[in-house]
Amino acid sequence: MQIVAATFAALAALVHVYIFYLESLAWEAPATRRTFGVTEAEARTTRSLAYNQGFYNLFLAVVTAAGIVSLGIDEAVGLALLVAGTGSMLAAALVLVTSDRSKARAALVQGLLPLVSLGAVVGAVL
User: Fold this and answer.
1) Membrane-crossing residues (predicted)?
2) What is the spatial distance between Cα 101 and Cα 114, in angstroms, rounded to a whole number?
3) d(CA 47, CA 59)
């Protein structure tokens, strides 16, 4: 089950690195604006907020990647980091959907892979 957990955690981390790219590096690009449903003026106004939030997503990916790497060194540390990273990703997805129901699709994209990873972690521990 650890392989399943690590695989889905890695996929979740990649999604969050992509979100980092969109929010922090490409926020005002037309394709990014379409993805997030913001106008050019809104993107200009919220650029610094998106930049900050993008790094938050990157940090979640880094913690998750550290957990994956640590699994091979110290299983307990690896699992703890994996749960911290993917648990935070899932919590962020829940906050997103509870703050705005129209963001359910985005929350699903953000939260499904971490949820599967966490389920596999539980299966590995039990």
Assistant:
1) 6-27, 54-73, 79-99, 106-125
2) 20
3) 19
